[in-house]
Design a protein that fits this description.
alpha+beta, 183 residues, 4 helices, globular, eight-stranded mixed beta sheet
Length: 183
């Protein structure tokens, strides 16, 4: 039986099987260490009985006023462990901590607009598109002018503090903003 546990700095030396995937953003060591030191309760891994990492989520709490929220910076599951609801379990834990510990109004995440499998999964978990962010993803050198030009959906799920559901909107796919306008 696998377990969900806190993400430790030493896990960065054993997550290649998870990170070597076209949909997964890989960050530098300092980035992960910053998250682990600042928001350790929003970072966890799913580990197999053998000790092999099955997946992980890293998140943070950010914003001000009614924009105070939990943010999913990265969630990924190794290909051989997909379709076992591991992402759903890790997301549920991040949502619970964002709601009960940080008292956020919502949880948000960014997903590539062409990652249909992930979008379907997030919608099945209660997330909805809040807006489309033009050219959100970094420079892969494949688009016009050497830019990636790949858009992202900003998806949100309201938490208990947002009983009026002000953090979500029904027409989010119609709202388009520039990546420069997103903090």
């Amino acid at each position: 039986m696998s377990v969900i546990r806190s993400f430790k700095a030493s896990d960065m030396f054993k997550f290649n099987n998870v990170n070597l995937d076209i949909w997964t953003e890989t960050y530098n060591i300092g980035f992960y260490l910053h998250y682990l030191s600042r928001w350790p309760d929003l970072c966890c891994v799913q580990e197999a009985p053998s000790g092999r990492m099955m997946g992980y989520v890293i998140g943070k709490a950010e914003g001000q006023g009614s924009e105070w929220h939990g943010h999913v910076t990265a969630i990924t599951v190794a290909p051989e462990y997909r379709r076992l609801s591991l992402a759903r379990k890790m997301m549920s834990l991040l949502e619970l901590v964002s709601d009960e510990t940080y008292r956020g109004f919502f949880v948000d995440l960014y997903v590539r607009c062409n990652n249909f499998v992930a979008i379907d999964m997030y919608e099945g978990m209660g997330y909805s598109v809040y807006r489309r962010v033009r050219e959100y993803y970094g420079n892969l050198g494949v688009g016009k002018g050497g830019r990636d030009e790949e858009d992202a959906f900003d998806m949100r799920k309201p938490l208990s503090r947002d009983s009026a559901r002000r953090s979500v909107r029904s027409n989010g796919r119609d709202i388009v903003v520039s990546a420069h306008d997103v903090s």
